[in-house]
Amino acid sequence: IGAAPVRRLAAEGARVLVADVDEDAARETARGVDGAVAWRCDVAEDASVRAAVAHAVESFGGLDVLVSNALGPTADVPEVSGLTDELWQRALDVTLTGALRCARAALPHLAASGRGAIVHIGSVNADQSFGGHAYSAAKAALASLTRTLADEAAADGVRVDQINPGTVRTRAWAGREERLRELAEHVYPLGRVGEPEDVANAVAFLASADAAWITGATLRVDGGITAVNTSFNRTAG
């Protein structure tokens, strides 16, 4: 999902630091995008996060927007009895605490910009039970962090919001086209799964002056799945 907001924000004239724990992936995302700089960053390490923010500020002369899209392990177990402490902690450390580390490092610079915004990428798993104990718990906690950060940062003119996407067609779904068709036909009211650009459009809006009076909000970009209280296990039968 993260590559699409990079392209969209750059198209709007932003200079973007593409931070990824996989430096080659960061370079691939930044390649061909005007104003994009690739940087290796592990959000599980505070020093790495602070170095990334410092490099962005040094490269661009300031910081206006932070988009937190780091994702911990999504492989989970169907029953909590099989969920290890290690998997649980890793999901929280990357998805939740990683977002906190990024916000903590970026907030002074966002406040200085006079128009700062943070956009967290969450999940519909924060709203309803779609499986994945550790992943879902981390995304739900991220929504709470979004609200508390919004409350604190408002005094400095910084807005903090979250986007909760549904199923989005990314490389993680490669080779699973039949499952995507099933979801589109039987699960999503709008009759299709999401595209990365759907999320990018929401990021661009929340980062823009058009959202100047929006903070602490969660925007569902989910094709209507949470509106109908369905599940990923729903079938035509």
From TrEMBL:
Keyword S-adenosyl-L-methionine assigned: no
Keywords: Oxidoreductase
GO MF entries: oxidoreductase activity
Cross-referenced Pfam families: adh_short_C2
InterPro entries: NAD(P)-bd_dom_sf, SDR_fam
Keyword Cytoplasm: no
Record Gene3D superfamilies: NAD(P)-binding Rossmann-like Domain (3.40.50.720)
Recorded family membership: Belongs to the short-chain dehydrogenases/reductases (SDR) family.
Protein known as: Oxidoreductase
Organism, scientific name: Streptomyces solincola
Highest classification ranks of the organism: Bacteria, Bacillati, Actinomycetota, Actinomycetes, Kitasatosporales
